């Protein structure tokens, strides 16, 4: 097996930064193609939205186990194998035009993306320490957040110029190029492989999940990101069918919504000294207020500019809420950092996939008011969970915050 060579540190770090956003690219780049895919495959909007849910569910489940597996079997081989399968599945989707086949390939992509992301995050810890590691970890968060912003923007132009298959050709080529870079320049940097002991791992999971503030956080995070995915699933149909704009405009709308999430994240970090629960109630309270305004005005003033303005505000407070609770969960059990990382990402993604698909299926979102209703439904659910958590806190104080 090829071992890591420090002389390739720079190119390996660049490769890592290019691979971490893969999850965002895989979920968002083909969103502007939803209406054309619906027409090509002769299905309804829910049938196309299922392609996103298949990825999210398999990605979330795989994240739960990926951390333990890369610690037991190493990072390099699992990442290489995952890149091969991801690339093949992407080209297969573009070539085999069967909706059920696409569902299967999207499940494979979710599994392989989880191993790529977890493996490369662990690789960063393997090759850097101290302040340099903290610096790159901070950069990693920013780079990861850029994918959901830029992917629909790129996908909009690909859809306009070449049709729905172009996004999957792009993903396949992207993974293939990254495979070659990893093959020639990267290697295994982790030497302290740990035995895969299921009993010990299961006990750790039980310890972490028994904490109500942590387990409740997984649900809140999933519902919070579920709003974003509900928008992602519905926006192409609203922008292109309801408002009558091109797929490129769908990409611009996603770009603006992404900047809202990023702005909320910055706001969350800047208010880090405020009480934890107060920040959560503030975030969800503002979401409900903006959602009510969006729903109320939808019957009187409904155009693309008003719609995107409300989405920006909703995603600003959405990003604020997500950042606050995500940071809390990651630091809740420092002695179980790997497990909490996998659980926080994996379990919340499972909640996201179920919540978003349930909402878009039940509400059949086609306009501004329907979109607002989905945010209100999820926000009110989060609010009820926070009240429940506050009652728990009265009996047993939070660990931090």
Low-confidence stretches: none
Tell me the Rg in angstroms. Answer: 21 Å
**DSSP strand count:** 0
Q: How large is the share of residues in beta strands?
A: under 5%
Helix content percent band = over 70%
Q: What's the name of the CATH homologous superfamily of the largest domain? A: MFS general substrate transporter like domains
User: Mean pLDDT across all residues, rounded?
Assistant: 87
For this structure, the quaternary state is single chain
Along the chain, the helix and strand elements come as HHHHHHHHHHHHHHH
Distance between the termini: 45 Å
Please state the overall shape, judged from the principal axes of the Cα atoms.
Answer: globular
- Judged by helices, strands and strand pairing, the structural class is mainly alpha
Total number of domains: 2
Biggest beta sheet summary: none
CATH class label of the largest domain: Mainly Alpha
Using the coordinates shown, work out and report the CATH topology of the largest domain. Growth Hormone, Chain: A
The CATH architecture of the largest domain comes to Up-down Bundle
Number of helices: 15
Main location: membrane
GO molecular function, one term: sodium:proton antiporter activity
InterPro entries: MFS, MFS_dom, MFS_trans_sf
Subcellular location: Membrane
């Amino acid at each position: 097996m090829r071992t890591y060579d420090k002389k390739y540190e720079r190119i390996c770090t660049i490769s890592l930064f290019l691979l971490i956003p893969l999850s965002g690219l895989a979920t968002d780049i083909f969103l502007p193609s939803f209406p054309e895919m619906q027409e090509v495959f002769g299905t309804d909007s829910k049938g196309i939205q299922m392609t996103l849910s298949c990825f999210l569910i398999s990605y979330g489940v795989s994240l739960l186990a990926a951390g333990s597996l890369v610690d037991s079997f190493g990072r390099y081989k699992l990442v290489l194998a995952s890149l091969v399968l991801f690339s093949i599945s992407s080209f297969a989707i573009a070539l085999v035009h069967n909706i059920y086949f696409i569902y299967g390939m999207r499940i494979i992509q979710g599994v392989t993306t989880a191993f790529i992301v977890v493996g490369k995050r662990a690789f960063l810890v393997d090759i850097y320490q101290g302040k340099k590691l903290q610096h790159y970890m901070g950069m990693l968060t920013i780079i990861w957040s850029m994918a959901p912003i830029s992917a629909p923007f790129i996908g909009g132009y690909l859809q306009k110029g070449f049709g729905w298959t172009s996004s999957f050709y792009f993903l396949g080529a992207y993974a293939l190029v990254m495979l070659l870079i990893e093959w020639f320049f990267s290697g295994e940097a982790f030497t302290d492989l740990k035995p895969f002991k299921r009993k010990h791992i299961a006990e750790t999971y039980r310890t972490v999940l028994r904490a109500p503030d942590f387990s409740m956080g997984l649900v809140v995070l999933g519902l919070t990101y579920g709003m974003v995915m509900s928008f992602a699933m519905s926006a192409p149909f609203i922008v292109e069918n309801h408002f009558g704009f091109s797929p490129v405009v769908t990409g611009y709308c996603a770009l603006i919504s992404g900047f809202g999430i990023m702005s909320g994240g910055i706001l969350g970090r800047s208010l880090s000294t405020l009480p934890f629960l107060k920040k959560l109630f503030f975030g969800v309270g503002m979401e409900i207020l903006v959602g009510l305004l969006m729903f109320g005005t939808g019957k009187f003033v409904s155009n693309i500019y008003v719609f995107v303005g409300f989405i920006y505000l909703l995603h600003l407070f959405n990003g604020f809420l997500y950042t606050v609770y995500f940071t809390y969960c990651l630091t809740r059990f420092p002695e179980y950092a790997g497990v909490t990382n996998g659980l926080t990402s994996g379990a919340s993604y499972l909640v996201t996939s179920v919540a978003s698909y349930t909402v878009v299926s039940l509400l059949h979102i086609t306009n501004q008011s329907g979109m607002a209703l989905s945010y209100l439904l999820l926000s009110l659910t989060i609010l009820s969970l926070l009240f429940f958590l506050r009652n728990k806190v009265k009996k047993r104080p939070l660990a931090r915050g």
